[in-house]
Amino acid sequence: MKLSICTISFRHHLHSIDQLAHFAKTQGFQGIELWGVHAKNLADELHYGADWLSSYGLETSMLSDYLPLEAPISEMMAETEKLSSLAKRWGTNKIRTFVGKQGSLDTSKKERKELISRLRMLCDYLESKGQDLLVETHPNTLTDNLPSTMQLLEETNHSSLQVNFDVLHIWESGINPIVAMKQLRPYISHFHFKNIASRAQLGVFSPNNVYAASGSREGMVPLFEGAIDYDEFLAGVLSLKEVDASLEWFGSNVKSVLAKDVQEVKKALQLVQV
């Protein structure tokens, strides 16, 4: 399993990309998941990219952004081309996005059909660049539950469409993440690992709260101290040949929590491999 830090975890911190790369290396991570806005803000700093990151023994596991699927096609494609170019520069073939801005039950057949059409356009373009589009399992999108996610994959029917499997959000939808993983297995290209103290506190991860510097962090807990059993989940993940995962931490004490969690994940994997 290759583990990455997410630069989004440091969205409210004054750390340079150099400091984050040094931290990731010294703590035993293999990669960095680069937030799209961070990649864009580094675009004019030509020194930074895949070669620079490899000097730390790291790779870019994924470029995570929010492609504007509802925007005019010209705007959507311009943004996709920009991200594709940045992904190439950083040496990753994975671009993450969300699908839609409302839940699957609140999306009409017409709206769903249009979103699927847009996904095909993006996948066609990215395929021509040797890249994949990863849709993240997330509330208030078309991938807010397993049936809708499977339907989306079947409707789009494109080899460049993959899944970023967010364990917590799958669990939030009411299904056992291991059951969901087995069904989505052919499409999974990346995992997000995070945890919560209790189901009643899941609202802490709503975008309006989690992206706000003054937002609540109540209920966010280290990976092995929450309601989701990651020992059990990691045992199931080992059935996959290759696993790329990011430790996505939105709470305080970022470095200490990530440093602890990466070691705990490695210990858990060693135990299930014995």
UniProtKB/TrEMBL annotation:
<dbReference type="GO" id="GO:0046565">
    <property type="term" value="F:3-dehydroshikimate dehydratase activity"/>
</dbReference>
<protein>
    <submittedName>
        <fullName>3-dehydroshikimate dehydratase</fullName>
        <ecNumber>4.2.1.118</ecNumber>
    </submittedName>
</protein>
<dbReference type="InterPro" id="IPR013022">
    <property type="entry name" value="Xyl_isomerase-like_TIM-brl"/>
</dbReference>
<feature type="domain" description="Xylose isomerase-like TIM barrel">
    <location>
        <begin position="23"/>
        <end position="263"/>
    </location>
</feature>
<dbReference type="InterPro" id="IPR050312">
    <property type="entry name" value="IolE/XylAMocC-like"/>
</dbReference>
<dbReference type="Pfam" id="PF01261">
    <property type="entry name" value="AP_endonuc_2"/>
</dbReference>
<dbReference type="InterPro" id="IPR036237">
    <property type="entry name" value="Xyl_isomerase-like_sf"/>
</dbReference>
<keyword id="KW-0456">Lyase</keyword>
